Every structure is written in C-alpha cells, then in structure tokens.
Amino acid sequence: MTDESLLSETLRINEIGTGATRRITPDEATRKRIARSLDLISLDAFDAELRVEPAREGWRLTGRLQSEAVQACGITLEPLPVTIDQSFAVDLVDSAPVANDDGEIEVSVEDDAPDVIENGKIDLGQYALEQLVLSLDPFPRKPGAEFVQPPEPAEISPFAVLKQFKRPEDGGAD
Questions:
Q1: pLDDT (tens digit, 9 = 90+) per residue, 111-126?
Q2: Pick from 3, 60, 109, 136: CA 20 to 30 A from residue 72's CA?
C-alpha cells in the first residue's frame, strides 16, 4: 500500500522517558510522493502531532492528524476535496510473542492487540501515514454522482460473428 520510505520519523524507546512529543509536517516534495503513492490528485496539507507515553504494558501512542487532500471521484473522475481532522491512539509493546511450554506461539487476532515495536524503534511517520490511509474513502464519490450500467449487448456468444458468414445454400451471404 505505502512505501516505508515515504515518511519516516524514528523514535527510540530509550528516548521516551516520561513522554515524547513529535510533530510531523512533510515538505511539498514528500507530500507529492505520498499523494502519488496513495493515488491522490494532491496532498495539500499534512500535519501530525504525536505523543508516546509509558503505559501499563509498553507504551501508548496518541496523535492528531490534520490533512487536506484531493481524491478523484470514482465515477466522474472529478476532483473531490477531503478534509481530515482525526485523533487516534495505538498501544505498543516491546516484546515479541513468547513460546509456551509446548513450544507453540499463541497469536492473537484481536482488533485491539498492541503493535509490536521492532529493534527498539517506533516509526512515528508510518503511524501518521497509516492514519491518513485509514481516513481516506476507498471509493470516493461526489454527491449526486451515480453509476449508470451500460446496456448489455444483445448476444454475447463468441460465435455470434460467425452467423453472418452462412453458406449461400443456407440463405447466407455469397
């Protein structure tokens, strides 16, 4: 979906202390790369304020994303402006799954399972970008735009064209 190098702002867990705050505002060239990657007409503004704090288990990443984007209407292809102003929170843990006594690793498929931090680093840029992707309508449509199904051809058979080449004795073309 997105290239990991599009927006990177790394925070090491040893820098968190009692809490760490970062603001991510990519330059125009980076916004253009993000827009191209997400199939947007443009990404005119992108501002993310993120805070990581220690939690009961691991850390809690909270943030606010404010963005101005332009998507293409999926029906008319006309520009469709999108304003995003959204708060979010993600739980983070530093440990990978541990094998039980049988040597098996239990995997949780819960929606609210915490994200695992790899190599002691949190890429805040990727979390901000992820929130942008989740906020965009996957099927944008301008108000009032409707898809009209074109009429089906009368005969869809691949042999329909061959019917015009009947032999003369059958009453077809010479």
A1: 567 888 888 889 999 9
A2: 3
